[in-house]
Amino acid sequence: MSIHIGAKLGEIAELVLMPGDPYRAKWAAETFLDKPKCINEVRGMLGYTGSYKGMPVTIHGSGMGMPSLSIYVNELIRDYGAKRIIRIGSCGGMAEQVKLNDIVIAMTSSVASSKNKMIFGEIEYAPCADWRLLRKAVEAAEAGGITPHVGGIISQDTFYTHPEYPLDTLISHGVLAVEMETAALYTLAARLGARALTVLTVSDHLKTGEEMPSEQRERGFSHMVELTLEAALADAS
Ligand code: HPA
To answer: Would you tell me how many other CB atoms lie within 10 Å of the CB of residue 224?
Structure first.
């Protein structure tokens, strides 16, 4: 047991998929894994371990935002020996070519949070995805007939933005989408010696104001989980 995870040692796989929503973790584990077993329920942050085509996999919620995700990622890597963590989440589209339900794979993430400032001071650290995982995810997406957007996103501490939010400046600098976790995941994985990736579906769009209806969200999420499991399998072989 760690402070926030009730699993016993050995109950968490070296591959962890992390949706923000713990109920999505439950749904994904029950839908895609063989013999899923609930290994964490502390504070309602559900985690399940099972296998996919013979590969042990844990699917564990991260909660919303970098502070929550950081707690789980620290403990998963340091206390349970997780080696590969793949966030599977949703994002707000920013760039014009990014449409609702599209897949975005984050090469890097800009950060609007005080966390990395406290660590790096004046240095603007660029949190970066694991290249091999990223390549395998792109290949798995393409094999399934999906062309993902691959590039930079932004992780920030707020979902609801201030009217002076520099949306157009970010778009004109190539930022594809916004979410609230990836910069912390990539920073921690680098520091603690694990490999990490974020795969996202676009659930809303900041420029157009569109939002995806919930049953369509479910379908998009399902494609994303499948392609991520296939990518992890290819990465392990
Ligand atoms: N902002 C931040 N995080 C998000 C969004 C958003 O619009 N959509 C999904 N995650």
So the answer is: 25
Collapsing DSSP to helix, strand or coil, 102 comes out as coil
Check pLDDT > 90 for residue 94: yes
DSSP-H helix ranges across 16-128: 22-32, 66-78, 114-120
Q: Which residues of 128-157 are buried (b: 16+ CB within 10 A; e: fewer)?
A: bbbeebbbbbbebbeeeeeebbbbbbbbbe
The one-letter amino acid code at 137 reads: A
From 64, 88, 91, 167, the mutation candidate for ligand 1 (largest count of ligand atoms within 8 A of CB) is 91
Phi, psi of 32 (to 5 degrees): -110, -15
**Phi, psi values for residue 59, rounded to 5°:** -120, 120
pTM score, whole prediction: 0.96
* 34-62 average pLDDT score: 98
Name the residue among 231, 211, 217, 199 with its Cα closest to residue 19. Answer: 199
Whether residue 203 has its Cβ less than 6 Å from ligand 1:
yes
Task: Classify residue 78 as exposed, middle or buried by CB count within 10 Å of its CB (0-12, 13-18, 19+).
Answer: middle
Our answer to whether residue 204 is catalytic in this structure is: yes
